[in-house]
Structure formats: structure tokens, C-alpha cells
From TrEMBL:
The name this protein goes by in its record: NAD-dependent epimerase/dehydratase family protein
Organism classification: Bacteria, Bacillati, Bacillota, Bacilli, Bacillales
Limits of the Thioester reductase (TE) domain: 12-56
Stored Gene3D superfamilies: NAD(P)-binding Rossmann-like Domain (3.40.50.720)
The organism's place on the tree of life at top rank: Bacteria
Amino acid sequence: MTTRTQTDTAVVAGATGMMGRQLVRLLLEDPTYQRIVVLVRRGIDITHPKLVEKQVSFDRLESELDASLLKDADVFCTLGTTMKQAGSKEAFRKVDHQYPLALAKAALQHGAASYVIVSAMWASEQSRMFYTRVKGQLERDLLSLGLPRLIILRPSLLLGDREKESFGDRATALVFRLLDPLLIGPLARMKAIQCEDVAQVMVMMARESGPTVEVLESEVISLRSSNKNSRTGV
């Protein structure tokens, strides 16, 4: 069990994606955090007194981050792409493995309090699917670092407003919505989940004390989000 380190700083990589935008919004609304540092390639269209933009080259991430940003911070990683967007397996691996691992190494080196990352359902280094195999390899490598607190979330299909939503994205989301009533018992973990719910649990977990490593499957993420909303009357 690790003791929660009091911090007023959150660092976010992946702030321009569907999940990252939701996460940044929640962090800006959270009174616990007074400084939200977003690591970006270029400026973003958000203005807020608590928001700090740090433009970086993700290929040189470890050398571009230091203790002034990461010391005692909660570090959130929502970096990710698709094979279509990446264009090749090598480019996909860079975004979904190399960059998150470099961020974790910098977080460890400069004394971050926690590292919270969105992985994927069925992530396994033994997976026959390239996507889930890369996610599993990343989880394996993160575990080997010995971070003071590592929180891995493995959501099912993410629902939310995508800036570049393809026909395939819309069709997949529709199928999952139609199947939702049938996904009960052991199949419940396959239910699609809202990005906002995942982001909410990311923030919740970072602020809590807990084991050095926690892995949350999709159904647990949904349950924790529902419990929090019922307590707050949302």
C-alpha cells in the first residue's frame, strides 16, 4: 500500500484526443489540482488560469521533461492511435508503446507521485492481435520500471465525441449500443464505456492511496464511476 502524496499538479500526455480532452476538462474543474500541464506538439484551443502548455517533441520526451514539471505530480497518459491513423505498425508502436514508456521513465526519474494510463481490454504480450499485443508489451515494460504507483485502466470500446470519426467508428459504436442489453454475466465486461466515465475514474484513482500497482478492467471502471455518480447525485 502506497501513501497518497499530496500534490497540486497534474501532467497530461494525449490531451488533444477524445479521452485526453475529457480528462483535461475534469482536471481543470477539480479543486485538488492548481496546475494542469499538458504535453503537446502544438498549442491547444483551451484557455484556463490553471492550464500550462508544454510543447515537446515526443521523440525526445525523456530529455525535455524535468523535476519542475514532474516532481510529486500525478501523471496521466492517454496517448494512443489507430493503425489507420498511424499508417504502419512501426508508427503505431511509437505512439502506443515508445512514447508512454518514455513518459513513465521520466516520471520515475523526476519523482512523480503516480502514473495513470489507459490501456485496452485484453491487453496481453501474448495476444495474436497486434493492437492488444503492443498494449500488453507496454504494460509489461511499465511494470518492470518500479513506479511508486502505477494505475492501468483497460476499458472496452470508448464512446465519446471523436474529432475525426470514421464510418467504421460510427458503425462499431452502433453495434455495441445494440448489443448492450445482451451483454450480461461474464459478457458484461465487453460493454462499451463513455470516455467521461474512464476519465473520471482516472482522476479518482490518482487521488487515492492504494497498492503500488492497480489494474482496472472495464466493468470495474464502470462500477466505480457509477458509485461515484450515485454518491454525488449526478
